[in-house]
Every structure is written in C-alpha cells, then in structure tokens.
Amino acid sequence: MAFFKGDEVEVCSKQDGFLGSYFAATVINNYGNHSYEVQYKRLLTDDESGPLIEVVDADEVRPKPPKILATGFASLDMVDAFDNDGWWVGKISGKQGSNYYVYFDTYRVEILYPSFRLRPHLDWGVGKWISSKKRV
C-alpha cells in the first residue's frame, strides 16, 4: 500500500527500547515504495523545538487504525496501551476495578492502565486490518 503527502499513519519503531511501539505521524514525502518522510504528532526533536521529522522504511508504516469501541477486555486479549507518546503492544494480564494490567513480553514488565488508554490490538496485513478475534 502506498501513502501520500498528508496521509495519517502509524510508524512501527525497530529501534532498541521502542520495539512493539507505534507512533502517530503524517506523511510529508513519498520516496517511492521504499521509504517515506514523516512528521510525528507527539515526538519532538532532541532540542524539543518542534515535531520530529525522519525518513522511515515503507515496511515501518501502516495506515492509522480504525477506532474501535472497546467495552472491556478479557485476560490475554492483545491490546495497545498508550504510554510515552505512542501505542505499545501487550496483553491483558489482570484487572483492578476499571483498570487493566498489561504485560509487555518484549520488556517483561506489567503496568496498570485506565481503560481509556487501551485499544484492541490490530495488525495490518494484506491490505486489511486483522484482529485476534475477527477481521476488520
């Protein structure tokens, strides 16, 4: 799938310490099907003078996922948790009141989140969104 200037996307980081995370961005240049220049919505430059702009490989970019109303999660549901300016992939490991514990396999850590900072995890593949429960 090709993206064009102005398209809202998410960028999957391959850098150490950021594996399993997705960051909202806007495409500002298309360099063919191999790379894109993106401007992040929440990530800033090192000196914090403005939004971070970088060139990323095409396989690190996916469309912005659809909003899905989640009324609750079950144990082991795959979710994305919003933290540190991005969405991090984990799985539900417990519940405390209206909050959920999310376990992150990559980092072997469990963190408690309010439900409004969670969304069902979706993968982008073969031109469509794929959920662990159903296809979107």
UniProtKB/TrEMBL annotation:
All copies of domain Agenet, residue ranges: 1-69, 71-126
Q: Which InterPro entries match?
A: Agenet-like_dom, Agenet_dom_plant
Question: What top-level branch of life does the organism fall under?
Answer: Eukaryota
Family matches, as Gene3D superfamilies: 2.30.30.140
Q: Enumerate the PANTHER family for this protein.
A: AGENET DOMAIN-CONTAINING PROTEIN-RELATED, DUF724 DOMAIN-CONTAINING PROTEIN 2
Name the chain's protein: Agenet domain-containing protein
Q: Which organism is it from?
A: Fagus sylvatica (Beechnut)
Classification from the root reads: Eukaryota, Viridiplantae, Streptophyta, Embryophyta, Tracheophyta
